[in-house]
What does this fold into?
Amino acid sequence: MKIIEAMKEIKELQRKTDDLQKKIGSNCALLDYETPMYGKDQQKTVDGWIQSIHDMAKRIEFLRVCIQRTNLATEVEVNLGFKTYTKSIAAWIHRRKDLAKAEYMTWKQLNDRGLKEASIASTVPGQAATQIKIVRFFDPVKRDEMCNLFAGEPTAIDSRLEVVNAITDVIEA
It folds into this structure.
């Protein structure tokens, strides 16, 4: 089974679980004068739904663990900028989730803080005006390169993992 197939099966099992939970909520009790929607053995029907949910939860757990095992064991190359980086699927997921954005936001903080360069006239007659310049403790070109790199990283990761998820078999224990 491929990773994407396991992910889709999990999603479908979750949908079925939600549907059965609603059925259980609607059919777990009634007033003594009402007719059970599922006949005389409605108790068995409700018990069956509960058992089905339990069985689906076990399957979801199994699939999730298989995916996690696969994500930790499978190395993937992703091209970022003009370099190729190799990390586990799990590491790329963390980069995609929030780490690339954290680095992007760090580089984005490097700015002129709204400061303006200026020329201040001297109060001493005959003395030239003083030039006030901004002193930057960063390289603006490098900042722009890094912002571009980290801003595009999630898309590059998504693109690569879509392919990897379609071709990689899950590792079953």
Remarks:
- Residues 3-73 form one domain.
